[in-house]
Amino acid sequence: MWLTSGRDETIAATPRIHLTAVADAFAEPAAELAAAHDAEVRTIDEIMASDDIDAVFITTPTDVHADLIEQAARAGKAIFCEKPIDLDVQRVRDCLAVVAETGAVLMVGFNRRFDPNFKSVREHITSGAIGDVEMVSIVSRDPGPPPLSYMERSGGLFRDMAIHDFDMARFLLGEEPVSVSAVGSVLVDPAIAGVPDVDSAAITLVTASGRIAQISNSRRATYGYDQRIEVHGSKGMARAENIHESTLEVAGAHGYTRAPLMNFFLERYMPAYQAEVASFAFKAVRPAFDGHALTLCGRGDGADVRLWAHDHEGWLVMEAAATLRGP
What does the buried/exposed string (b/e) look like for 279-314 if buried means 16 or more CB atoms within 10 Å of the residue's CB? Predict the structure, then answer.
């Protein structure tokens, strides 16, 4: 995740969080971010040892996620980490063992569960309004591919992009898939084959009872950021459509025209990012005040979704630390 592209504002705007310190591999962006939020620049070791830091937000490249999670867990910090925990399944399991051993709070950033529209679809499932789930259809297409330098470290389309759709499929199916099949092609940019990676994919997941999820992924959507889900059940269907830049619709002799789709993931999912961080803050701080048990999206899900995806260079490498505040 690129913290200066919106994550820092989301953290700072959350009522139960005070952005206290920032650590970064590059001094100038760290200083700019800290100054923008009246925070300090500290090293990662200083953050882990600080008594005034209750939680850390890990938004670094994937290859250091697990190491930082373990360090924070042993330091007694609540942990929010962008997906995935690691690209290696055994490394994920080893990391989660440390989390379990220390009793740390860990939330993995699968923000789409917090999207208001997708949550509404889930509520229509759990309420029984559409009956038993039979088929789930997920469309996830980016306006264009990321830089090749990013793709070389991200883990590829299945482990970096489709991982969100694997999580959404599990969120909606209500059962764990027992089989996964996929096909991929390079249709957008021939250079992507040299990563090596694919830019277009179709994936099918099937559960033990026969429920089916179909996922369509592409690194190209000339009409904007295409994000749709549909769940077909025994009593009906629930669907969440794309979000446009505005609700404007114009009619004339030429027909109807609508505003274009939102064109960037931060714009499209900003309400989800905000709700995600607010949920982390509430569930991380709440036990200190009333002893309630924690239920976090991500502790097991981070490993499970990673398993479905297998057997960055981010524009800014950033870790933030925060002080959590009670209600």
Answer: bbbebbbbeeeeeeeeebbbbebbbebbebbbebbb
